[in-house]
Automatic annotation (TrEMBL):
Protein name from the UniProt record: Multiple sugar transport system substrate-binding protein
Species the sequence originates in: Amycolatopsis thermophila
Lineage, top ranks: Bacteria, Bacillati, Actinomycetota, Actinomycetes, Pseudonocardiales
CDD domains: PBP2_TMBP
Record bears the keyword Cytoplasm: no
InterPro entries, A to Z: SBP (IPR006059)
Pfam families per the UniProt record, alphabetical: SBP_bac_1 (PF01547)
Family: Belongs to the bacterial solute-binding protein 1 family.
Cell inner membrane among keywords: no
Sorted UniProt keywords: Signal, Sugar transport, Transport
SUPFAM superfamilies: Periplasmic binding protein-like II
Domain of life: Bacteria
């Protein structure tokens, strides 16, 4: 969940590493075909607990014209990308609909693996979508995917320790230092391991400082003053004695567990932590609070990095018209709402953040059996506020290489020398961008 891809609320992110060759062999047994029951469409998508129900709904609506088969990819994001990329690079015609992490769309588009969305399909895919998520599905002004869900981190805290959330990073560090001096839980918990989670934190700081890592067109490295300021903040927060001793090993669920053990005052994490807290410490739930991210500069709202998934139609699909129709169904307003309340993946459609109707509008709201967005997402206003001012990671076909470079150079954050680190990032990111070594 380093990208905030989603996943059932309260379930820790999967760390299962499947064997790529075996996964490809198994997946290769299912191919797109036509039969008496209609066209078979192969959907390749990450594991999501109740997504089969969405697939079933769309198959019912298709009334036999096509049948979507949900091929679950591995839980590891890198494994998911590699399986699809290698098969597409080989011209495999057995892939119809692709579940793409929001950072993969430029790569798949540039490689010619994702079909462009045009005409009525594009209009339907763009209608009502929040700008940040929509940007992740776009490359060079063209739409290559339809947004299925988004995600965004929040600041979580215990109001018995901190009655009000800090407004800025400076405020948060100062509050943590004061709590430490008073012998109270004080750590600022975030993903400091050398992986995508650290890149997400850094990208949020850069965007919140008004900076840029790459140019807007993704063709050159910028690393401006805002990027340097973000390095200064990372250096300060990890050198002030207010982070967990295990910071450099911490991923999302490590952060969640540390907070629940009482080892922190502030937690920067995705919304999945709420249901975990509710399940494991229900007696303390009334004190578990949330807010949008602290700002870098006073009075300038933070710009928090989004995650999520988009749905693309494979360029090798033999059933593109049906694949576009099916993809639109899988991320329809009705199905995004179902996935939100059942699997905890925040919708990309703006209208759902003010939708108070339950899943079955003919029956009363029931938080357990007939939830609404309000009952499933008590923090939805904060999520919506963050999404309206969201940041996306650098859009480039070389993103995977850039992410690897950034996480390596920034680790450990306490060793950052802001200007020297910025210079190193500028040089190494330029090399990575020019090599474009992203296709396996």
């Amino acid at each position: 969940m380093g990208n905030g891809r989603g996943g059932r609320r309260g379930r820790p992110p999967g760390q299962i590493a499947a064997v790529l060759g075996a996964g490809m062999l198994t997946a290769g047994l299912v191919t797109a075909c036509s039969s008496e029951q209609g066209t078979t469409l192969n959907l390749y998508y990450a594991p999501e607990d109740t997504f089969q129900k969405v697939v079933d709904n769309c198959n019912a609506q298709a009334a036999g014209r096509y049948k979507i088969v949900y091929n679950k990819l591995q839980r590891g994001a890198d494994d998911q990308r590699l399986q699809m990329a290698r098969r597409l690079a080989a011209g495999d015609k057995g892939l119809d609909i692709l579940g793409l992490d929001v950072t993969w769309v430029p790569e798949f588009a540039e490689a010619g693996w994702a079909e462009e969305w045009t005409g009525a399909n594009r209009a339907k895919a763009e209608a009502g979508v929040l700008p940040g998520p929509l940007a992740t599905a776009t490359w060079n002004g063209k739409l290559y995917a339809a947004t299925k869900n988004t995600n965004v981190q929040l600041l979580w805290y215990d109001d018995r320790i901190t009655p009000q959330p800090p407004a800025t990073w400076d405020d948060m560090i100062t509050a943590a230092e004061q709590l430490k001096a008073a012998g109270k839980p004080h750590n600022i918990l975030f993903t400091g391991a050398q992986y995508e989670g650290l890149v997400v934190i850094y990208n949020t700081l850069v965007a919140s400082a008004g900076g840029h890592i790459l140019s807007d067109d993704g063709k050159s490295v910028v690393m401006d003053q805002g990027a340097v300021q973000a390095l200064e903040i990372l250096k300060r927060v990890t050198s002030s004695g207010v982070t967990d001793p295990s910071l450099t090993n911490m991923k999302e669920d490590d952060v969640r567990q540390a907070f629940q053990r009482g080892n922190g005052a502030f937690q920067l994490n995705w919304p999945f932590v709420y249901a975990s807290f509710a399940d494991e410490q229900p007696q303390d739930l009334p004190h578990f609070k949330w807010s949008t991210y602290p700002a870098v500069d006073p009075g300038v709202p933070a710009r928090t990095t989004i995650g999520g998934y988009d749905l693309a139609v494979s360029s090798t699909s033999q059933h593109k018209p049906e694949a576009f129709e099916a993809a639109l169904c899988l991320r329809s307003q009705e199905n995004q709402k179902f996935s939100a309340v059942k699997d905890g993946v925040p919708p990309s459609l703006e209208a759902l953040y003010t939708d108070d109707t339950p899943l079955d509008p003919t029956k009363p709201v029931d938080p357990d059996n007939n939830p609404s967005m309000a009952t499933a997402y008590p923090m939805r206003d904060a999520i919506f506020a963050a999404l309206k001012n969201a940041a996306v990671r650098p859009l480039t076909p070389a993103y995977q290489s850039l992410s690897t470079v950034i996480s390596k150079v920034l680790s450990p954050p306490s060793k950052i020398d802001p200007q020297k680190t910025a210079d190193e990032l500028r040089s190494r990111l330029t090399d990575a961008l020019n090599s474009k070594g992203v296709i396996p």
